[in-house]
Amino acid sequence: MTTSPHRILIVDDEESMREFLGIMLSREGYDVESAQDGGQGIDMLRRGNFDLVITDIQMPRVDGFGVLKHVLEHLPETIVIMITAFSSTEQAVEAMKLGAYDYITKPFKNDEIRLIVKNALERRELRRENRQLRRELQDRYSFHNLIGKSKAMRVVYDLVEKVAGSRVNVLITGESGTGKEMVARAIHFSSDRAGEAFVPINCGAIPENLLESELFGHEKGSFTGAVQRKEGLFEVAAGGTLFLDEIGELPPMMQVKLLRVLQDREIRRVGGTKNISVDVRIIAATNKDLESEVAEGRFREDLFYRLNVIRIDLPPLRQRREDIPLLINHFFEKYTGRPMPQIDDTAMRHLLDYAWPGNIRELENVVERCTVLGTADGPLTCDALPEQMLNAGRGRSESLTDIPENGLDLERYLADIEKEILLKALDRTGGVRKKAAELLGISFRSMRYRLAKFGLGEDDETAGDE
């Protein structure tokens, strides 16, 4: 398929300049037209679609600022480059503050113009692709696309819906693979920032000596290899959301610098001397127990409280087993475009009873495997399931001491078991805490303490059972 050449409009009251730019850019393969002043240029912009406008600043009737204003108000996908004399660069800088992409000064070099035009058109394509991607992501990651009907997930949905309309910082906690980034995206794309960037970064995946530059940017020459100025992710996410995944891995020095940014809403590039204001919403996530990290001195308490304004705890998959069939169906549709096939009873029992140490991420991998190994004309059987799932036994009680290949968080794992036993005891006793305590062989006082520890305190049904 042949791609149409980019259309460029040159607006200049000097005929020689229009001819020079027209010939040079036409030789580069662009479709070039010209206007002799700003008024004619605006008329041509109203009649045709142009990817790029190169306009002189000083012109009779309507100057370059008038052309720039028209483009900014009516043609958001069109890029503007200003032409100015060397003595009038202050005006060009002012035009860039208003929204022009760049400026060139007379007299200029041909290679300079070619490079600026090439970079400007690449920026336009990137912006257009980003807008399209954001529209697709908004449809894909909206609040209504979170999957699950369990009580634990309904609590998550309620919190997502409440915090999406605010600008407070959010901390998402949960084991690896529970969908923390999916929830962060749901918050962003359900908020008034949905039209701006969602920028994720894994704080544990970037070397410490590069992390500051990645977050805050750097100036040209600020260190070896800094051959040009670079915007950090805080600037890239301006107006949108910055998702700090694995925030518990942030080195101590970066914790201090992040705290200052959250307090002042300003950054300073590495090697820079000026503070830059940033309007960014922060959503952080971790699979660590940050309270324990604070108590052990590995995470700053003041930063924890800055991040932990609203907290969303994602349950592990083993605590929301009723959602497993829904998730299986979702992933089958994702990989095959068809609903989940029939699954025989034994295979389904393995899927429901498995402990899922890798949570939703592991489930997705298993479903992808099943789409390859399962038969197209019959029910899904155990033959398509991985060996470790079949060997894990039919009940979680048979594999309590199994350790996944990638290890586990012992404290969180034991806490999950304790919480699940408490909930099952309450369920068996109809929510009567005193009877649940007797069932578990602990005192009522101990029962109250354990329930409070997991946020399972009194409600209308259990408040009077003392």
Automatic annotation (TrEMBL):
Coiled coil: none annotated. One of its GO terms (biological process) is regulation of DNA-templated transcription. It comes from the Bacteria. Residues 146-372 form the Sigma-54 factor interaction domain. The keyword Phosphoprotein applies. Residues 7-121 form the Response regulatory domain. InterPro entries: AAA+_ATPase, AAA_lid_NorR, CheY-like_superfamily, Homeodomain-like_sf, HTH_Fis, P-loop_NTPase, Sig_transdc_resp-reg_receiver, Sigma_54_int. The modification 4-aspartylphosphate is found at residue 56. This is Two-component system response regulator PilR (NtrC family).
